[in-house]
Amino acid sequence: xxxxRWLRWNVAKENRPAADLAREGxxxxxxxxxPEPVSDAERSALRARDPGPPAIVDPATHAVIPPRxxxxxxxxxxxxxxxxxxxxxxxxxxxxxxxxxxxxxxTRRLLGVDYDARGMIALDMPALKILRGQAPTRVAGIRPxxxxxxxxxxxxxxxxxxxxxxxxxxxxxxxxxxxxxxARLPIVYRNDxxxxxxxxxxxxxxxxxxxxxxxxxxxxxxxxxxxxxxxxYPQRSVAxxxxxxxxxxxxxxxxxAITAETGTATSAATPSPPSNH
Length: 277
Description:
The protein has helices at about 20-30, 40-50, and strands at about 105-110, 115, 120, 140, 150-160, 170-175, 180-190, 210-215, 220-230, 240-245, 255-260. With about 280 residues, the chain is mostly beta strands. The protein has a five-stranded antiparallel β-sheet, with no helix packed on it. Strands 4-10-6-7 form a four-stranded antiparallel β-sheet, with no helix packed on it. It has a two-stranded antiparallel ribbon with strand order 1-2. The relative contact order is 0.20.
């Protein structure tokens, strides 16, 4: 697709006569006012080809943060010590939820980027603490897996919608270099990220890396975004990374993973246009 995603269909060879395929399509299509009777032989044939319902995954298996897989590259930052919420949280299935049981924690390749996503760093708003467990507004001291990099690929979700619904920073990733200088990299609402339940389609600037059902009542859809943040000083060594929400109402970011780009090649998530904020 135009986002760099592969779309795959099972197009296995079909040897049945066209009349049989048309008949099956009529049987499995939308119900008509006068459905045709189905013979016992047709029922048996349909059931033989039915793969059955998908396997049910127990949400409790995702309610813990699993250990990091041994041998992962250092470019996939280890956020084990900084996660403050699990991927799924059955006790927090309300309107303000960070619960996405459909996302299997672990190593994931999304939009061509490998991530180590096993939990969440969920941040609250400085002005109004609303997340269960009193989530922080800033998590600092994150140790980078590698000291020098050209860019960071961030896997992130937005739990809340900014009150004014305009383009402005939703949150920041801050780099502190070894010489004590800093760079604040904004993740911009309506440019890099949208609230998780909104379907922005495939034509905007935000890059949907994953979509699936949430744990909220009715299984409302949830989306995670891939944001590429260019390092303005790639020649400098980075001592630590911080993740911070903004003072804007309903800034509720949830960070799942950070991957560093150390080479000159760009990731599938292309750079965001510069922000005026």
